[in-house]
């Protein structure tokens, strides 16, 4: 989003990206580190390869908890604000097609609670696979707790086609990693490898996970580390707690947050309209991949920059620094965040 805003506004308004300041409010403190990646600056998409240009796609990231703290410090009461639609007060985006994409006529389609509280990428993937197999069904199997769920797309005859899972919370992620580790060879002659899957002889191996949605926070993004918690003083005062709220109260509060998240306005149906006014035929769960691809191509055309440089990043393997006497990657990123384009 930051790249789209800075590249498009820079072209349309005729101003350098350094004069555009972008603030993002996020539920997670890790988004601060993400915004500090050098790949998410004009060093990459400007195309000249010069290091240290330092114009970030996102200049400042603050969490919802920090918004509340800032408001309190200024004597600002959120609960006095009207709940009117902010779209009525916004300025029009300088490109009509991107304006329609960013601010559709109706609120964005919101999937059911089965999509989870972290954006719904897994759920959309499941729906897409199911749409390619007529009469298939999505089966849900709950794990040890509510943050572990396994999904299987089964054909009309009941055969598994696609297997995926959702793991939220570090403890559950640790269990997932243990499952994914290769089996250790046994030291005993003829012994079976430790951790190897056990199945009767002659039976085929079970279907492996094709996709796993992993989130560090239990409950997903609505319970992110930067989110407002039930023990924040303003919430304690608002709810009239006589004692400090505990885990049970936090669970109830998170349920309220989830309810607000899932009860956001749905669009009037799932129809997605193209620029020419024609309905898209590839709609899955209210989303048209071809419409998104066409919009991205339009964006690249506006900027004159290759779409790969605009929309893609690379994977960087995390190298363990245990026992090494040098600055860690996290420390380096934090230092970088303080130098480039303002602080947090």
Automatic annotation (TrEMBL):
InterPro entries: Cytosolic_Fe-S_CAF, Fe_hydrogenase, Fe_hydrogenase_lsu_C
Coiled-coil stretches noted in the UniProt entry, renumbered to this chain: none
One of the record's GO molecular function terms: 4 iron, 4 sulfur cluster binding
This protein's UniProt keywords: 4Fe-4S, Iron, Iron-sulfur, Metal-binding
Gene3D superfamilies assigned: 3.40.50.1780, Fe-only Hydrogenase (Larger Subunit), Chain L, domain 3
Span of domain Iron hydrogenase large subunit C-terminal: 1-225
Family, as annotated: Belongs to the NARF family.
Official protein name in the record: Nuclear architecture-related protein 1
């Amino acid at each position: 989003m930051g790249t789209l805003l800075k590249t498009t506004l820079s072209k349309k308004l005729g101003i350098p990206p350094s004069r555009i300041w972008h603030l993002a409010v996020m539920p997670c403190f890790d988004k601060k580190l993400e915004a500090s990646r050098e790949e998410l600056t004009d060093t990459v998409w400007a195309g000249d390869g010069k290091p240290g240009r330092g114009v970030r796609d996102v200049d400042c990231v603050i969490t919802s908890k920090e918004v509340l703290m800032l408001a309190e410090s200024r004597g600002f009461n959120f609960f006095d604000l009207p709940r009117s639609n902010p779209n009525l007060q916004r300025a029009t985006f300088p490109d009509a097609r991107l304006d329609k994409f960013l601010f559709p006529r109706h609120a964005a389609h919101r999937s059911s609670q089965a999509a989870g509280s972290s954006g719904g990428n897994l759920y959309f993937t499941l729906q897409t696979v199911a749409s390619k197999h007529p009469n298939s069904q999505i089966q849900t199997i709950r794990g040890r707790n509510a943050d572990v769920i396994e999904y299987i797309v089964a054909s009309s005859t009941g055969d598994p086609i696609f297997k995926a899972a959702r793991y939220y919370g570090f403890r559950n992620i640790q269990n997932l990693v243990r499952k994914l580790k290769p089996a250790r060879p046994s030291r005993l002659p003829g012994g079976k490898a430790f951790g190897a899957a056990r199945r009767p002889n002659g039976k085929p191996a079970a279907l492996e996970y094709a996709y796993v949605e992993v989130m560090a926070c239990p409950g997903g993004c609505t319970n992110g580390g930067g989110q407002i918690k039930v023990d924040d003083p303003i919430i304690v005062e608002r709810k009239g707690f006589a004692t400090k709220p505990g885990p049970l109260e936090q669970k109830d509060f998170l349920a309220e947050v989830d309810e607000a998240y899932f009860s956001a306005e749905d669009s009037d149906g799932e129809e997605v309209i193209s620029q020419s006014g024609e309905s898209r035929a590839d709609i899955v769960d209210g989303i048209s991949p071809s419409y998104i691809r066409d919009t991205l191509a339009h964006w690249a055309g506006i900027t004159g920059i290759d779409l790969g440089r605009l929309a893609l990043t690379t994977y960087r393997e995390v190298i363990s620094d245990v026992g090494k006497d040098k600055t860690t990657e996290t420390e380096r990123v934090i230092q970088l965040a303080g130098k480039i384009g303002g602080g947090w």
